[in-house]
Structures are given as C-alpha cells and as structure tokens.
Amino acid sequence: MVDVLLQCQGFEASDFTGYINGGEYQQIMDCNSLLLEVEDETITTHNMIRDRYQMRFPELSSLVPQPLDYASVVKRISNTEDLSGVDLADILPPRTNLAVSVAASLTNSRPLPEDVLEATVAACDRLIALDSARDKLLQFLETRMGQIAPNLSAVVGSPVAAKLIGAAGGLEALANMPACNVQLLGARRNNLEGFSSATTQNRVGYLEQTQIVQTTPPCYTSRACRVLASKSTLAARLDFSGGDPSGNAGRKLREEIHNKIDKWQLLPPAKRVQPLPVPRSETKKRRGGRRLRKMKERYAVTEMRKLANRMQFGVPEETSLGDGLGFGYGMLGQAGCGKLCVSVAQSRLAAKLRA
C-alpha cells in the first residue's frame, strides 16, 4: 500500500475524494492504517540511511535526530569533505547548523563507495516522498474530520484531530488510549547540542499546536495540555460511540477548558481583616476540688522565695558576690542572727510525700 501511495504523489488531496465518498467509515480507518504503515516505513528507511551513512559522518545522527531533516541533510552533503560550501540553512536551524559544521570539521570519516552512496541517496528520496504522502493523507483527513470525529474536532480543531487519529492508529485506538498517552502523541525529541534545557518544553506533542495552548500564558501551558488531553479523550470516546454527531458536546468541553484557564489567571481574593472577638466580661468558672488543691500546694510560692523577692526600705540588700553584685537575697537573713532564716511551714502535701 505504501508503494501505491508513493505513486500518487502528483495528486492533490481532493483527488482522493472520489475514492472515499463511495465508502463508509471503514475506508477512513483504512486511510489511518495506511498512515501507520507510512510511519513504520519511515522509521525503517531512516534506520537504513543512518546505518549506511555512519561511515561518512557518525555524529550526524545524534545532531539531527528527526528522520526527514536527517535524510535532507544526507542528500545535501553526500561525500562532500568541506561543509563550508554546503548551505543547510533551509533545512536546519542556525544553532544545529553550526553544531553540524563544527562536528564535520573534527570527525574522523572516510567517503562512501559510489554504489553505497547511490543507494543511500535513493533511500533519502524515498523517505522524503513518504513524508509528502503522509502530509497529503493528513490534509485529506482534515476535510473529513467533521464527519468522523465532530466532537474531537470541536475541542482541538480539525488539523490536530486528524494528526491525533493518525498517530493513535484510528478513532477506536484513540478512544481506548489514556489521557496521559494522548498528551504525548506527536512528541519529538529535542536535541539541544549541549545548551540549557531550562526553557524547553518536553513531552508535548500535537496538542501544543492547538489554538487553546497557543493562546495560553506560558506558565499555564503544561496544565492546559493536561486538561486538553483529558477532554480530547472524552470527545474521542463520544465520537467512537456515536453519542453526539452534532458536535455540541465537544463545544461544551471546549468552553469548559476556556473557563478553567480563565479561572487560573484570576487574582486571588483579598484577605479580609477580621476583628478580634469581644472579650467576656463575666468571670470564668474555675475548677475546684482535691486535685486542684494539691496542684496549688505543689506549685505554690515558698516562704523563702517570698522573702527573697522582698526588699526592706532603708536597709542594704545582701548579695552573693557583695557590693551589689550577683544574686540578691532580699529580706533573707535580716532578722539579726546573720544567717539565712526561713520559717519552716510544713505543708500537708510534703508530710504526705515523706510518709
């Protein structure tokens, strides 16, 4: 089926309409199956190109991980020794282009034989043709999304809905897929060539291309992707079961997503200053009884402490170090005997404890 698709590269997306209009939903699913075959063939061809070109430029596969970009670069470079005369600006971003040029000047490589080079370039042409065929299939599916998945198209848009169904392998597979996996459909591995990954967004696939995520502030993008993935899964299940062919449920789900994002951006309510409660004027009832009396006797101020806390007017206070230094004794030892005198008042609690 892939070879038949490659022969149809000269046709437009509208040329497939005559083939599909006479069929039913199964023919649309066959188109999704063809997309999966194209993906598998793309991976196989990319692995073959990488294994053959490893002899010429071993570092290129790590610098350019995407299959289409890798094939275009291999076809452009071929056996060229000096990359200063090779223009890769239309294929690679400036940062990756610089990394490829530096790696090519430092690598230890040897040119490919002519037969191996011809087979590698032919494989590059085939991979580019496969990618073009995949784009044509996706363009055709976009025109049919209103009939295949009206609710999913209302949530994420027709182009993204076609890509999600194609990447999942059909509407049934998308409906049975958990939301965390739907969020990763179409995710591409970013090669930063040693640069910082602090500002990069990983684990984001086709859902990043939706209008909802594009219009969301960057600080809420990850949360919006999670919510959008969960609502997309619900919409896909509705479409697969035929719950709402009109797409009203999908529009309601989209409105819920917008309301959530708007609510995230609202400022928190200002804190209200609450006045202190009015104190009670009546006296509190205190506990009485034998246990309270024992506790009061245990923690009561002793006579020694009372005398130490008192000072007699006109009489100098004795201190532990003399001359007013150290701890003061207050009225202790001021009875005329020259010693610390404490009146012995035995409490009933102390007598009971000694007994």
TrEMBL record:
Coiled-coil stretches: none
Keywords from the UniProt entry: mRNA processing, mRNA splicing, Nucleus, Ribonucleoprotein, RNA-binding, Spliceosome
SUPFAM superfamilies: Nop domain
Superkingdom: Eukaryota
Localization, UniProt: Nucleus
Gene3D superfamilies: 1.10.287.4070, Nop domain (1.10.246.90)
GO cellular component, one term: precatalytic spliceosome
Domain Nop: 148-266
Transmembrane spans: none
One biological process term in Gene Ontology: spliceosomal tri-snRNP complex assembly
MF-aspect GO terms: RNA binding
PROSITE patterns in the cross-refs: NOP (PS51358)
Main subcellular location: nucleus
One Pfam family this sequence matches: Nop
Entry keyword RNA-binding: yes
Similarity comment: family membership: Belongs to the PRP31 family.
PANTHER family membership: PRE-MRNA SPLICING FACTOR PRP31, U4_U6 SMALL NUCLEAR RIBONUCLEOPROTEIN PRP31
Official protein name in the record: U4/U6-U5 snRNP complex subunit prp31
Organism: Turnera subulata
